[in-house]
Design brief:
The complex is a heterodimer. By secondary structure, chain A is α/β, with parallel strands linked by helices. In chain A, helix 3 runs parallel beside helix 6, helix 7 crosses helix 13 and helix 10 crosses helix 11. Chain B is globular and about 25 Å long. Chains A and B meet through helix 2 of A and helix 2 of B.
């Protein structure tokens, strides 16, 4: 058996409701700024929920030609934007990325939902001949990775994870394994989502999954708070460039953090609800720690799934207590979703970016809106304001519908 | 607006090409960089704009901009 190769993060890109670059988004979450507001993307008359986390002042033409804009769903445009930024940040080009040894995995929970809705309208109005020939290729979930691979000549492994709210973490974890196992040297990985559409918002509404706090959008996402009433649907993309360590060192690349381990488990329990005590999450965090060769006491920060739904926050807290024991009183746990909202399949991507920045800068972003913690939620959630604190290693957790759990371990890079 | 101007306007919009590139003899695939999906969309746009239906077997005759204009004229579009 060959030794496992080490994997580091050498580039990052993001477009989020709290900023259209890593720098902007990181500044926002460290300042405790919410990105949630009224939905502008469609007419919300008749909808229970009228708020979401939309991108603001995002100029798609900075990343995609006009001709293509009509043919790409927004989740693909967001991925192209984040990939451009991540590749530039890593100082890699199509020529230097590695070609056959470079690949991409970009997850998406739903893919091109808006495209499908438009195509269905055209079908209903004018019959099958009115369906755009670009409807299918714009809606397919794997086309974010497809277009990114074409633009940057990433000719190695390509994939798309569609594990709902865990898609981004599964993408990063799987990409990490590709490099660790020797199948690739560079991987662009993360998640992209653009589901602020009538069907997306309406669909989550009837599941009673999302917040109804329409009159106070910035307070709607309040993980671990007594008055939380569901998550807030958000959009955007977060991508990291993962690279085999010696290659990164040889070319003198900037290294944000090391990806040290990855755990993936299934609840095998219910389509949407977590099992009591979130035992699937417990097994997932333990698997990730084992994979990283770390003990619970080595972890200084957890970027929680922390959706702001009644069940998740309660059960996730229980799971952290089960895994971390005594140390659960001291480990810092924050939910950046309190500011970004829930980017669904892109959540793991964006939260990987925040976790890596937290390690790099020694700053833990806060959980905002935690005014009255739920009595059973009694961990250190870094309420309201960011905290300066050295982080040796951190977990980023995501738990998706379908019982799909994925946890990635990041560690301060020491050669 | 003449038929030529209307057709070229649609082509510029759909294929993202310039007016200068849209000479009558320009072929959609070879000269204007269209692929098969672009062509389907372009034809749908022409059908929509001129209120006609173009059958699949008629498509094969349309290779250049002039072909498209001639075809539309043959359908009584002016």
């Amino acid at each position: 058996m060959t030794t496992r190769r080490r994997v580091v993060i050498t580039g990052m890109g993001a477009v989020t409701p709290v900023g259209n670059s890593v720098r902007e988004a990181w500044e926002s979450v460290c300042a405790g700024r919410s990105g949630i507001g009224p939905i502008t993307r469609f007419d919300t008359a008749g909808f229970q929920t009228t708020i979401a986390g939309e991108l603001k002042n995002f100029d798609p033409l900075a990343f995609v030609e006009q001709k293509w804009l009509r043919r790409l769903d927004l989740f693909i445009v967001y991925a192209l934007a984040a990939a451009d930024m991540a590749m530039a940040d890593a100082a890699l080009t199509a020529e230097t990325a590695g070609g056959d040894r470079a690949g991409t995995i970009i997850g998406s929970a739903i893919g091109g939902l808006a495209t499908m809705e438009t195509a269905k309208s055209a079908l209903d109005r004018g019959g099958p001949r009115k369906i755009s020939p670009f409807a299918i290729p714009a809606a397919l979930g794997n086309l974010a990775a497809g277009h990114v691979s074409m633009r940057h000549s990433l000719r190695g492994p390509i994939n798309c994870t569609t594990t709902a709210c865990s898609a981004g973490n599964h993408a990063i974890g799987d990409a990490y394994r590709h490099i660790a196992g020797g199948w690739a040297d560079v991987m662009v990985a993360g998640g992209s989502e653009a589901a602020i559409t009538p069907l997306g918002v309406g669909g989550f509404n009837v599941m009673r999954a999302i917040s109804l706090r329409n009159n106070e959008p910035e307070k709607a996402s309040r993980p671990f708070d007594r008055d939380r009433d569901g998550f807030v649907v958000s959009e955007g993309c977060g991508l990291v460039v993962l690279e085999e360590m010696t290659r990164a060192l040889e070319r003198g690349a900037r290294i944000y953090a090391e990806v040290a381990g990855y755990g993936a488990t299934a609840d095998a329990y219910h389509l949407a609800a977590p099992p009591p005590g979130h035992e699937g999450a417990v097994r997932c965090m333990r698997a990730a720690l084992r994979d990283a060769g770390l003990q619970p006491g080595d972890i200084d920060y957890i970027n929680a799934h922390g959706t702001s739904t009644p069940l998740n926050d309660l059960y996730e807290t229980e799971a952290v207590k089960t895994v971390f024991g005594e140390h659960s009183r001291t480990v810092a746990v924050s939910s950046t979703k309190s500011m970004t909202g829930h980017l669904l399949g892109a959540a793991g991507g964006v939260e990987a970016v925040f976790t890596a920045k937290a390690i790099e800068e020694g700053v833990i972003p806060p959980t905002i809106n935690l005014d009255n913690p739920e009595p059973a939620c009694d961990l250190d959630y870094v309420p309201h304001t960011a905290r300066r604190q050295e982080i040796r290693a951190a977990l980023s957790s995501t738990f998706g519908f379908g019982g799909a759990n994925a946890v990635v371990v990041f560690r301060k890079f020491v050669p | 607006m003449t038929l030529e101007e209307k057709v070229i306007g649609i082509i510029m919009e759909q294929l993202g090409v310039t007016k200068e590139e849209c000479v009558p003899e320009a072929a959609f695939i070879e000269d204007l960089g269209a692929d098969s999906l672009d062509l389907v969309e372009l034809i749908m746009e022409m059908e929509e704009n001129f209120g006609i239906t173009i059958a699949d077997n008629e498509l094969e005759k349309i290779r250049t901009i002039q072909d498209a204009i001639d075809f539309l004229r043959s359908k009584g579009v002016s």
